[in-house]
Amino acid sequence: MNGITVKFVRGDGRTFSIDGGALGLTDAGGLDSANVEVFSQKAALGDGDLVTGQRVGSRTLTFTARARHSALGDVLRRAATSFFLASQTYAVHVTRYGARRFAQGCRLDSLDIPTESPQKPLTLKLSFLMPEGYFLSEDEFGRNIAAIEPRCGYPFVSVAGQGRVYGAYAFAQTVVLDNDGDAAAFCKAVFTARGEVINPRLNAGAGFVRVMATLSPQDVMVVDGRTRSVTINGENASAKLDRQSSFEGIAFALGANSIGFSADVGANLLEVYVYYNKRYMGA
Known about the structure:
Elements: E1 4-10, E2 15-18, E3 23-29, E4 35-42, E5 49-57, E6 59-67, H1 73-83, E7 89-96, E8 99-112, E9 123-130, E10 135-137, E11 141-144, E12 148-150, E13 167-169, E14 174-179, E15 185-193, E16 197-204, E17 207-210, E18 214-215, E19 220-224, E20 229-232, E21 235-236, E22 251-252, E23 255-265, E24 270-276, E25 279-280
Antiparallel strand pairs: 1-2, 1-7, 3-6, 4-5, 6-9, 7-8, 8-9, 8-10, 10-25, 11-24, 12-13, 14-23, 15-19, 15-22, 15-24, 16-17, 16-18, 16-23, 19-20, 20-21
C-alpha cells in the first residue's frame, strides 16, 4: 500500500516498522472504522425510541505485510515473534500520505505468520485492540506558556526616553489553542516551581483548577484533564483542591480554547508546559 507506513513502539521503547524497507504493507483495516455506539430505550408514550447516550468504543486494527525478499524470511520471523508479545502495550504510529497520527495503549490480539514455501516472501498478519477509539495527533503542543522571550541583546542601541525591553512573556500567561480534531481533546499542564509559589491555579475556559498548597523550588505539579487528577511530586493532591475547582474546561472543545495560569504569590516563578493531543475518528 503506497503512501502508508506503520511504526509500532512497544511499552519498553523498542520499535518495529513496516515502512517499505524489509517489510511492505499490503493491507490495513480499522484505520477509518470508528466504533460508534448509540444507547437508547423504548419511549413510554408515542413512537420511536429515546437516545440515552453515545460513545466511541474500542476498535480492532489489522495489518498485513509482506517481506521484500524471501531470503529475509527467517530473520523477520524471529524478529516479529520476539517483538509482538501479549504482555506488552503498543503505540501504533500511522503515516498516511504525510499525515501522522497514532493509537496509544494498543494490545496485541493476534499474530499470524503462515507457513509457506521458503521461496515465497514471508507474510505477517497482525491484529490489535485499540482501546482509546480515537487516533491522536503526533503534535502535543508541549510549550511553556510561562516562557519569557529575550528582547535585548548586546551590543544594543538605546534611544533616550524610550526605555528598553529586556524580555516579554511569550503568551502573556494565557494562550488560545485551536482544536480542529473530531472530538474534545484532554489537556495536561505541568507546573515546575523555580521559587516559592502559593496556591497555583490553572485557568481553562470558564473554569479553573486551583491547588491550595505552597510549591517549593523544583516541585512539580501535574494537572491532568483526562484522569481529572492533580499530583505534586507524584503524590495525589486532590484533597488540596479549591472547592470551586472544575475540570470541565480542561477538556478542549472543538474550536478555540483559552488556557492560562496564575498564583496568589509567585506566578512569575513558574514554568507551565501545556500538552494536548487532538483526537480523530480515522488515521
